[in-house]
Structure formats: C-alpha cells, structure tokens
Amino acid sequence: VLSVVQKVMLLSEVDIFSEVPTEELAFLARVVEEQRYASGETIYGELDLSDAMYLVVEGTACLGKDGREVALVEPGQTFGTWALFDDEPRVLSATARSDVLVLRLDQGDFIELIADNVLITRGVLKALAVRLRKLLSRFGGAEGGPHRRAMAGLDGGPPRGEP
Amino acid sequence: MLASRRAEILAAAPLAFAYGLVMAALYVLRPVKGALLLDRLGVGALPYATIAVALLGVFVGGAYSKAARGARIDRLAAVAIGAVIASLLAFRLALPSGGAPIVFAFYVWVTLAAPLVTSVVWMLASAGLDAREARRLFRILGTGGIVGAIAGGLLTRAIVHAMGALDLLLVASALLLLSLAPLRLARIEGAVDRHAQRPARPSAETSTRGPGAVRDVALIRALALTAFVGAVVSVIVDVQFNDFVGRGFVDRDAKAAFLGTFFAALSACALVCQVWVGPKLLASRGLGAALAVLPLAVGLGSTAILLAPTLAVAVGLKFGDGSLRYSVHKSTTEILVVPLAPEARARAKPWLDTTVPAAGEAVGAAIVLLVVRMLHASYATLGVVSVGLVGVWLLTSSRARLAYVEAFRCALTYRDIDVTEVQAGPLDASTRAELLRALASDGVRTVTYAIDLLAPARDDEVTEALQALLSSPQAAIRSHALAALRTQGRAIDRTTLDELLRDPHSNVRAAALAVLRDRGEGVTGELVRDVLEQAADQLAIPRYRRASREALASFGNAALALVTERLATMNRAARRELLRVVAMIPTQAAVDLLEAELAAHARRPPVIVASIVDALAKLRASAPELRFDPSPVLACLEDALGACASLDRDLAAARPLASTQAGRLLVRVLAERRAAMLERVFLLLGLLYPAKEIRAAFHALSKPASRRSANAVEFLDNVLERRHSRPLLRVVEGGRTRAPREDPAALLDRLAIDGDPWLRACAVFCAAANGVTGPVARARQDPDPTVREAAWVAPC
User: Fold this and answer.
1) What is the ipTM metric for this complex?
2) N or C: which end of chain A has fewer CB within 10 A?
3) Residues B765, B770, B773: CA angle, nearest 5 degrees
4) Residue A157 and residue B199: Cβ atoms within 8 Å?
C-alpha cells in the first residue's frame, strides 16, 4: 500500500497537476485508488464510459485501437486523463502488458474535490492554460498565424494595434 | 463614492469645455456656409451639395475610420482639428477671389468635416471612461456641446455685421485652435492606450442568438427604413427653409446673422426637448408617441407651408424638425437598438447612423431636383411630397416600434440586454409594459431578468407587481423582487419581512436582512443575533457564501463581535470567509480587528495570515481615510523576510537530496513555502507602500532574468526604505547567504519536527529514503496521521 507522500510524489510528476501545490495534492492522494491488473487483463475497452484517469506505478500498460497497439505506458505516466474533464467515450482501449499497479482517480471524486478546493482548481486550470498556450504557439502563433487572437485572449486581451 | 464622482466630473470638465469650443466653431461655420451658398449659388445648388456630401462622405468616412483605427487618439484629435484649421485658412484666402466651385467646395467640406471633428472628441471621451462613467459624463459633454452651439450662433449674430461673413472663418479657426489646449488637458490617464487596445469588432462569424437573430434583422430593417425616410424628408425641409431664407434676406451678412440666431435658438430648444420633453414623453406615452412626434410636426409644418408659403412658416417647419430630430427622435431611436444582440448592434449601429441617413439625404436631394428642375414646381410645392413621405414615415415608425417590442421580448428570453444600459436612462412606457408582462412568464430566469431591468422604475404599478412576487414559489424571484423593492426604497410590511427572514432559502433571507439593515428598525438584540448566526453558518456552504458575506457585512460593526467570536472557533475555510466579510466593512473597528489578528500572526496558520493581509489591503484601498497602524505590519514583514531567508538556506541545503524522487518532493515543498512567503512579503509591503506598484513589481520578479525583473529590482531599491529593501533584495536576487550550508541529515532532522505537518511528512519520507533513521523513528509517534503513515511506510 502506498502512503500519501508516495502518491503525492507520483501525482506531482503528472502534467496537469504540475501547478497544484503539493499539500493540496495530498487531498487528491487520499481519493485515488490503487488497482492491480494481471498481464493481459483489460483496464478499459474502446467506447467504454470515460470515468477515471490512471497513473502507472508498476508494470506497463498498452493502449490500442481496433486490436492494434498504439502506445505503451510506463511507470510514472498516465492514460485516460481527459476522462477527468469530459464524458466522451474512450477512443483507445487499455490493457495490462505485464502485471500492473495503477492509481485510479475517479472523475466524480475529482470533480467533488475541485468544487471544494480552489487551489487544486486553480492549479489544474493553470496547467491546462500552459498546455493550450504551447499548443497554439506550435500552430503558428508566434508567426502571427490564425491562432494569434486566441493566444492574445489567453494573455488577457488583444495585442496593441489589433483591429 | 462622492469623491470619485467629483474626480470623474473634474476629468470630464476640460473635455466638455473643448467640445463646447468645437461646437461653437462649427455653429459659426454653419450659418456662414449656408449664407455663402445661398448668396453665390442660390438654393438650387443645395441638392447638388447634399448629393456630393453623401457620395464623398463614404470615402472620407472610410479613410478617417482607417486612420483612426491604428492611431493614438490624442494625436488623431490634434491632426483632425489642425487639418480643419488649415483648410479654413486656405478657404479664407481662396473664397474672395474664387468662383462658384470654391463656394460649393467650402459648403461640402464644412459639412463633411463637422462630424469628423466632433467624433474625435467623443472618441477621446469614450476611450477615457468605462461604460458606466460614460453614461453619466456624456451628459456633461453633451451639455458643453449644446452651450457651445448656442454661443457659436449668438457670436455669429453679434459680430457678422462688424467683421463680415468671410472673416468668421478666422473666428472659427481661433475657436478650434483654443479647443486644443483643454483637449490636451483632458487626456485621461490610460485613455490613449485603452483606445489603441479596444477589442476587435465582432466578426461576421460571431454567432448570434438563434431565433433572436431573425428578430434583430426585422428590427434593423425597420430602423433603417425609418432613418432613410426621415433623412429624405429632412433634405426637403432644409431646401424649403433655405429657399425662404435666400429670398428673405438681401445680403450675405444678413443671411449669416439670421442663420446664427436661428441655430442658437434651435440648439436651446433642442436642449429643452432633450432634458425635459423627451423623458416626459417617453415615460408617459412610450416609444410609439415619441417616434411619431417628429413626423407629425414635419407633416403639420409641410401642410402649413403648402397653405401659407411664408418665411415664418418655413422657419417654424425647420425649427420643429431641427429641435425634435436631434433630441426626442434621436433618444428614441437610441432606445430602439437596445434589444439588438451586442454583435448585431456593433455591426448595425454605424450603418444606421451614417450610411442609411447619407443615402436618404442623397435620394432626398434627387427628389428635390426631380420636382423642381424637371417638373418646374416651386420649393413650397415640395410640401406635397413631404406630406406623402410623412405618411410612409409614420408607417415605418409604427413597424419599428412593433419590431422593437418583438426583439425586446426575445432579448428578455435570451437575457442579452445590458441591464445597466436600461437602468441608466428613463424607462419608456412601451419597455415598461413589456417588462411587466414578462413578470408573468413561466421562465424563472426571464422573470428575474425583468425584475432587474424594472428595479429603477419607481411607480406604483411596478411596486405592486414586485410586491406580488414576494410570495412567488421560486426563491430566486422572491430574492430579486425584494432586492428591487429595496433599490426603489419602497416600504415592505413587517409581517411579510418577518416571513422572508424565516425563508428556507438563504438568498432570500440575505435580501431580507439587507432591507432590515436599511430600515434600521428592530435590528437589535435577539433578531440580529439570530440572523447573523444564520448568515455565519451559511458561510460554510459554497453556493450561499457570497450572499452570506454581503448580509453579514451589511450590518457593519454590529457583525464584528460575532466575527471575532467565530474566528476563534470556525474551521480554516470559514475563517477565511469571515476575514473577507471584515474586508467589506469600511470602519475603524474592522481595521483594528484585523491589526489585532495580524499582531498574533505567529500563532495563525499561513493561509489565515495571508487572508488577514489581503483583507487589510482591501480596506486600505476602499477606505484610505481610516487609520492604519504600521507596527503589526512591520513586525509581520520582519518575520516573513526572516522566514524567506531561512527557507532559502533550507533550499540550498536540500538541493543535494534532489537526486531522489523523495528529495525532489521535499525541494518542491520548500520552494512552494518560499513562494508563498515571498508573496506575503509583497502583500505586506503593499500595506506600507503604493499597493499597485508593489504588486506589479512582484509579478515582474516572477520572470527572473527579464528586463521587467531588473526594472522591478531597481524600483524596489529606489522606493523601499533601506531596512526593507536590503533583506528583500537579498531574497529576490537569489538568496545568497554567508552562513555555511547545513548538512542534509541535520536539515532533515530539523524539518522533521517543523510546525507544518505536510513539510514534516515529506522530510520524514525523504529521511527514510536517504537512510537517516533518527527522524523516522521519532515520527512514528507524530500526532499527525500523514506523518505517521510516511514514517511507517517509508522505505527505511
């Protein structure tokens, strides 16, 4: 069984929690569940209900589509992250490649927690904003491309001289 | 608030003065251009001039808008006014020897330049003020303009005989030159930048409300038709008036003197209509009557000119048209665009205000040419056309009113009317009737929205309707109705109020509390205690927090005793809410309470200290007249700076541990603590120095090695007292210390007994991961479960 501190160590390495203070991550650590899957066991299937995010602690999980392997998830990496934010069905399936220990963060628990804890909400939103800004700059924001206005919105207003 | 209003008025005064000078100049030019045209070319040239203005207006307006978009507004104003002055001087030189084309060009140029010059003043005003201020202060600006127009007309009359009409161009140039000085003074701080940073106009792709968009189209079409027909008629009236003036006065100066007097009187009458007749008519008869009054007056005048074609009748016709068009009619049409969706309005308004009237004027001028030149009828006979067009005008006005009602209903459903816009002006009868009808709607949100819009209407019918809603089964409707009645200052009977105080919904109770507080009756003893206790309990429930905070704060000092008591007993989140309540009570007692709490900062959790400092900062900003004792702030600041330096030492000692995951976590926790402490330092400095600048410096320092960061360091070095700047700069410049770096094991041993349980837990885990067993063994007896768990599960 992992302690709260150990879970926080793992959660603090997750991209969307990178801006959440560690003390607040301890609240998240208390609601995540440890789950074990034997090699070859299905964690979730394609088009399943999106209800949780998973963080691999030990072993390797395999993400696939239509029976083809798409990606391997190693310890410290997460999968199914968007399940925390929307209800779209799973696009990929997840299977245990070896015996796997994962931390499962339930969508309902997460929503309940961010409703009560503004510091977690703020940290997650900040991380999402950082991710979005990076994405927009990759699509030509710096060269004045079509996403410049959206980037400007993230910066709090249109750039000077913008019509 | 009074001080801020006074400051706003003082800020607007130079603009109003400048606008008055500009309008005076334009009202000197207006009679001159008319007199010159009539004298040299005769009234027959007027339709051609009108068509030329309409056609050139499209190009000049477009070029001007393009120039205005990227330019600094203050420079634009100076350039626009300077260009007009230069052109006037050029015309002064050219007109005596020039022929008909120069006079024609002068007339067209002055007509085109007038709106450009006035618009720069309005742009400067709107760039410097927000929407709410703008509504209040545009009246001052408008009044300045009308006074200027009256003065300009009277000045023309007084000096035209002595100077001659042509030299009035020099007077107008001088007035425009004089306006530059107050315009420069009127540069409200940030106005220039705000103008440049205006958000982009909504694009065509911006979505509008679905069915609402259809209603918007119908309303815009009806408004455009009304504006078009109105513009056609105005040209006919203008030509008729000028015909009689041209024939009624022998020389150019006499014409100019008469026109000066006429326009001065017209402006004075327009002012009376604007401030008195218009609001009364709108409030008592509604939009329909207010829209019909101008066409009816013009129709009456046109009939009279057919029956008795004299100068007096023509003057009466033009007087009625001019005074009503730019007062009652303009105000009414401004109300008609209120229900348009913001995007639709942004697109349609400039079109309705400029393009449509210009097209109407061009068509009006063409009709005049057709009737007078081709059919060889007299100018007075044009009255027949006017009367016919007035009939069409009345029909289009009626359609516009119906379209408005439909669009208003739709906008109520979609709640996309700006409440402040409706609340700022008088509520016209049609809108009021529509809103009263909406109160019976099934949709709760539509009803509450209608209540908010009706709140400023202080009449018995509205009050009665709102009182009936106090027994609505919907809590939101009850609380909104109560708040609206409170805004109106209407009495609510005690039995109803007592019932509402026991309402199961907190928002309703909060609204009832606010009414009680306003009345000041019976708000003592047990009742106050009960309601305050209730409100304090509700602070724990997120959705009721705001209402409860407002309710508690509305009791002022009476709530502070309870707040003090609860601060000692409630949980951390509720205590933060209580401190937010204190920040909303601008009294000395509130400041004293916060200072006492700050003095005890060493015994308070960091998050509570941050809330205390935040509350003090808010009070200092909202009530600077209160007495703020710097000593507890200084003591807290000294401790915070000491803590920052200590955390820097801890971070330096912990860095060698960062090769392990546990060590990285410990370093991150220390860094978070340091960042929080540094933020507290800056919040505290904000209580001793200008808060805004200190906050800006803090944000600049968050990007180390940038130019902003270097500027912030320089700013702090220059502004802060040495006893504050030295330790702070040591911290922000990297926390270099002369003290020898602590041994990591000793650090872990010390942190494992820190007062902060989370830091203890991380230190214990890190100690275990690094084989430092002493703290781990001790932590197995720690009172905090997370620390104990870390010690037991640790990989020791």
Assistant:
1) 0.80
2) N
3) 70
4) yes
